[in-house]
């Protein structure tokens, strides 16, 4: 048996911010004891929103907004089927006020009819593991004292592999494995039934781990048998007969020996064959980008070599420079995409995506297909992101503008300056089809209601809503098959009014020119004057580069243009 830590819970489930102190192991142990003792009240085996709200706000001192964020984020990991997501969006959009919304939210996580289906008994335990792995982004005081945790001006630029400790841990599968290895005992103890624990909430050599607990651990761990291409959850592999001697499973008690199970898990855990490390080391290189003269580094784009239905694919692009890159490809469908160190470029990824991370990019525009999970933008300067996504989060950005349609509040984490939010303002022919594929609707839409997550980001002056006077629609300059002909959901009234007034001015101008009675020579002279002014504007705004980069390259590199 070969086991590995799943990428998905860390990549899209762990908030890229240090967790609140009261989400530490000590409080989670108290929480699981409380939940088990109140099973009849909707705490166990399937934690309901009202009970979690009571625990989070009353016991852990979290704000209600943050409590719902964790609860909804966890359920979005489990509820991937688009019809269910669309059904929830419709129900939430129909709520007339806060009270009705709370009633609707109370249905999320409620016990399903028909009792405990197989694996469902571990919902509360899975949620505890989800809260536990938020610690992956905890800043370690010890490591910061020896210089490994905090970035400094003298620190070398981290590589794309993210080996620096200050890099994005959500992407680094080596960090995921190290985290699970170092916290495995704690996590197993968290899943134990009360009678298997000492008074100080620790395991003994004779403690037994229930099958239900191993089902919960399948939230984080999966694997294969004998290098099979079929990926299976941990609880199925743990029940495989040849493993019973090693993991201590007893058919009589339907439970595992704590020390044997822990030892078996440690010995079988290996590098994720579908993770970022494997993708960078042995992934398939994609010739999507041109190699631009004057660029100091070569553009690199890679994707997983091995793709299986149970695991989302991965696409990583780095150092795309001064060009337009446009793709709508099967390689991108349902992929986790990482865009790293791209400068002065226009990148169009017009396929339904699973998640997108944009890091250390400058002076660029990103137009993305609908994103089922999350878009995270980190350490970027002067970028525009145009996307329909389930969730947007940003940290350490400066002068960035987000044109978004999203059913959740955008998350403003730490270190942001001069952030602008605007309504989603474009379309392409397959957009609504792609939205349906990932379960995203036009309502509810919280583009204008960001949530300030970190205390240091509590200053609301870090963001603004783009003034309607600065708002222009965006045209995607590519022909595709499809039925979408306008921006899904339309535009807010103030922005539509600003566009209409601008169109009216153009019509008045055209009428004035028409009625001016210019001679043929005057018209020609006037046209040259307008074209010269337009050309000056193109150069001043940087739009000249965008237009030039849309011209197809030489025949030999046509495939790069996509």
UniProtKB/TrEMBL annotation:
<dbReference type="InterPro" id="IPR036223">
    <property type="entry name" value="CAP_C_sf"/>
</dbReference>
<dbReference type="Pfam" id="PF07986">
    <property type="entry name" value="TBCC"/>
</dbReference>
<dbReference type="InterPro" id="IPR012945">
    <property type="entry name" value="Tubulin-bd_cofactor_C_dom"/>
</dbReference>
<feature type="domain" description="C-CAP/cofactor C-like">
    <location>
        <begin position="309"/>
        <end position="440"/>
    </location>
</feature>
<protein>
    <recommendedName>
        <fullName>TBCC domain-containing protein 1</fullName>
    </recommendedName>
</protein>
<dbReference type="InterPro" id="IPR017901">
    <property type="entry name" value="C-CAP_CF_C-like"/>
</dbReference>
<dbReference type="GO" id="GO:0051661">
    <property type="term" value="P:maintenance of centrosome location"/>
</dbReference>
<keyword id="KW-0963">Cytoplasm</keyword>
<dbReference type="GO" id="GO:0051684">
    <property type="term" value="P:maintenance of Golgi location"/>
</dbReference>
<dbReference type="InterPro" id="IPR006599">
    <property type="entry name" value="CARP_motif"/>
</dbReference>
<dbReference type="InterPro" id="IPR039589">
    <property type="entry name" value="TBCC1"/>
</dbReference>
<dbReference type="InterPro" id="IPR016098">
    <property type="entry name" value="CAP/MinC_C"/>
</dbReference>
<comment type="similarity">
    <text>Belongs to the TBCC family.</text>
</comment>
<dbReference type="GO" id="GO:0031616">
    <property type="term" value="C:spindle pole centrosome"/>
</dbReference>
<keyword id="KW-0206">Cytoskeleton</keyword>
């Amino acid at each position: 048996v070969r086991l590995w830590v799943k990428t998905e819970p860390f990549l899209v489930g762990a908030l890229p911010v240090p967790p609140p102190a009261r989400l530490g192991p000590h409080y989670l142990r108290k929480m699981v004891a409380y939940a088990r003792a109140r099973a009849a009240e909707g705490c166990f085996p399937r934690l309901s929103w009202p009970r979690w709200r009571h625990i989070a706000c009353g016991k852990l001192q979290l704000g209600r907004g943050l409590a719902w964020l964790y609860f909804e984020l966890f359920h979005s990991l489990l509820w991937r089927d688009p019809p269910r997501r669309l059904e929830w969006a419709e129900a939430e959009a129909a709520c007339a006020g806060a009270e009705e919304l709370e009633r609707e939210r109370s249905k999320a996580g409620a016990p399903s009819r028909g009792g405990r289906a197989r694996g469902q008994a571990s919902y509360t335990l899975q949620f505890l593991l989800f809260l536990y792995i938020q610690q992956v982004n905890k800043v370690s005081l010890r490591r910061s004292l020896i210089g490994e945790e905090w970035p400094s001006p003298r620190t070398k630029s981290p590589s794309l592999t993210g080996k620096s400790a200050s890099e994005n841990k959500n992407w680094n599968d080596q960090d995921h494995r190290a985290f699970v290895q170092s916290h495995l005992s704690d996590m197993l103890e968290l899943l134990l039934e009360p009678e298997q624990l000492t008074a100080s909430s620790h395991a003994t050599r004779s403690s037994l781990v229930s099958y239900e607990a191993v089902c919960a651990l399948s939230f984080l761990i999966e694997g294969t048998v004998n290098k099979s291409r079929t990926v299976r959850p941990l609880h199925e592999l743990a029940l495989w007969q040849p493993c019973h001697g090693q993991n201590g499973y007893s058919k009589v008690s339907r439970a595992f020996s704590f020390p044997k199970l822990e030892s078996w898990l440690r010995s079988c855990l290996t590098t994720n064959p579908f993770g970022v490390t494997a993708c960078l080391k042995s992934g398939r290189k994609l010739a999507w980008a041109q190699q631009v003269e004057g660029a100091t580094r070569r553009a690199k784009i890679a994707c997983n070599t091995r793709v299986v239905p149970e695991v989302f694919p991965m696409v990583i692009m780095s150092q795309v420079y001064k060009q337009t890159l446009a793709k709508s490809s099967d390689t991108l469908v349902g992929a986790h995409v990482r865009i790293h160190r791209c400068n002065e470029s226009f990148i169009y990824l017009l396929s339904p995506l699973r998640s997108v991370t944009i890091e250390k990019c400058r002076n660029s525009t990103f137009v993305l297909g609908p994103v089922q999970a999350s878009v995270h933008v980190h350490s970027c300067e002067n970028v525009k992101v145009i996307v329909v996504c389930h969730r947007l989060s940003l940290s350490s950005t400066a002068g960035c503008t987000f044109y978004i349609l999203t059913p959740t509040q955008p998350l403003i984490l730490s270190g942001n300056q001069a952030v602008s939010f605007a309504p989603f303002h474009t379309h392409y022919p397959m957009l609504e089809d792609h939205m349906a594929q990932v379960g995203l609707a036009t309502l509810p839409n919280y583009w204008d209601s960001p949530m300030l997550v970190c205390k240091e980001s509590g200053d609301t002056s870090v963001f603004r809503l783009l003034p309607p006077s600065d708002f222009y629609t965006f045209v995607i300059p590519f022909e595709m098959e499809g039925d979408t002909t306008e921006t899904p959901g339309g535009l807010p009234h103030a922005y539509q009014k600003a566009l209409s007034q601008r169109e009216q001015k153009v019509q008045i101008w055209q009428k004035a020119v028409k009625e001016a009675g210019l001679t043929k020579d005057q018209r020609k002279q006037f046209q040259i004057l307008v074209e010269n002014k337009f050309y000056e504007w193109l150069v001043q705004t940087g739009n000249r580069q965008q237009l030039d980069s849309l011209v197809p390259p030489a025949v030999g590199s046509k495939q790069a243009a996509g």
